[in-house]
Structures are given as structure tokens and as C-alpha cells.
Write the C-alpha cells for this entry.
Amino acid sequence: MAASLDFRQLRSGPDAERDLTLNLYEWRGEIWGVLSGAGFTRGYVAGRRTDDTVILGITALASDGAVRTAEVPGTVLEQGDGVALELDWTIGPRRLESTGVVATDGVPPPLDQRPGASGTVRLVEIDESNLQEVMQVRVAPHQADYVADNARSIAEAHIYQPAGWYRAVYDEDVCVGFVMLAHFDDPDHHLYPLYHGWYLWRLLIGAAHQRRGYGTQVIELVCRHIESEGGPQRLTVSWHDEVGGPEPFYRGLGFEPTGEIDDGEPVAVLTRWPGPADDPPEPASA
């Protein structure tokens, strides 16, 4: 098998018709990275590698403001001490060649120092103009057991009660994720004792955008929404209690387990706000 793509910077070279750069990372067959050049102001890459074959999902913002998405097959090739990547696409040169590691000083950066969020992260309503783009944002395959895809989440938001409040997560003009809340304010609902107040029903950050701080910013925006709505300020979540699950992320944000278990998942409450008490108020009919 050809050399790893981890921490590789690949470029089309000055002789190519369109100069393009890919900064790539690879871990256990998962690939993610950042794209620039060839008329794109920024772009993200996520995909998988099997032996020397790759499938890359690409979302890129063109200089004219248009967002372009594509699923691109390719082949990883040995190239002396480096590596080359041949891609079957039309948005850039077919062959990219490694120019070294991503870090400019020659030392590969740790994963938590990859390019971060732009600082203009926002929650955007979903309609026919951006639905397809939102649907194409997915987690890495090994995370699929931890969170449902966006199509299922939107469907459930309209079927279950209470109905879901959901938004797409955008960094500038690129969709990077999805968030959905439920508001449990009916004491007669069977989940009210566990989740009275607001419940973080879904949080999905696309594979190409993870570990850049988006999740933390989304939770902050969610908290601002809750505060703007008035009423009790209480946010709960539940998670898959498995190695590789999201527990460290939520604990790092201040979620603490309540001791309750829902369908095998620990329930946790955000300690951001003082009160109300964790115990739900008694139903009016009691």
C-alpha cells in the first residue's frame, strides 16, 4: 500500500492549469482535510481509504460565493519519498503531488491544532434553498452509531412530540453541521421527569469539520437561544456510554450526569445556570 496521507500537503504544481492545494490527515482509514486554490476560497474534505483507493466527499466555497459539493474517487500512488494522489474530478488537476508535511516548519502539528472555525459560526433555518447541502453533511463512518443522519433527524422533528427545533450550523457560507432541540414543558409527557426543560436531541458536526471547535460554539449558540426564549433555563443531553463516544466532549462543556439512565444512555444536565432544581416540578394535577 502507498504511503499514508496523514499530515500531507499535496499540490498540483505551478505547471498545472489550476493550482490547488490539499492539506490532508489520515487515521485508521478515515481522511479529512482542507482544500484551497483553483478558484475556491475554502473547502473541506472527508472520506475513506481502502488500500490505495480513496473516496473523498468535498464541500468547497467558490470565489463567486457558490457552494459546490462532490464525491470524488481517487488513487494513492507512491512517489519517491512522497506520495501522489490521482483524482477523478473536474474542479482541479487530476494529479496532486506531496510537497511535504502540513506544518510550515517541517513538524506535523497535533490534531487539535488543525485550522479552526472562522469565528462567524451561526445557526441557520433549513429550507429548500439549503436542504440538499445540509443532507450531505455526515459524521465519519465509525461515528454513525452515535448520532442519526440529518434526514432522519428532520423527519423525527416533525413526527415526534414535542416537535424538534432544528438549525443548520454554518461557518460563513459552508454548512458544517446540524443541531436539534426538544422542549419538554408538558408534565404529562413520559420523558418529562428526565428532560424537563430543553433537551439536546441531536448535535452533528461533519467529519471534515470536527476537532475545530464547532461543537463548543454550537452549544454556546444553543444556550443563547434558550436564554432568549425565557422560562426555565435547563439543558440536558444523553450519550452512548462507549469508548469513543461523546462523553468527554459533553463533560468538558459542563454537562454532569444526573444518575438517570434512558434506554441505556446516561442523562446529563448542563451546569451553566444556577437552578432550577434537577427534580422536575410536580404536575399541576398532583
Confidence is low (pLDDT under 50) at residues 104-115. The radius of gyration is 21 Å.
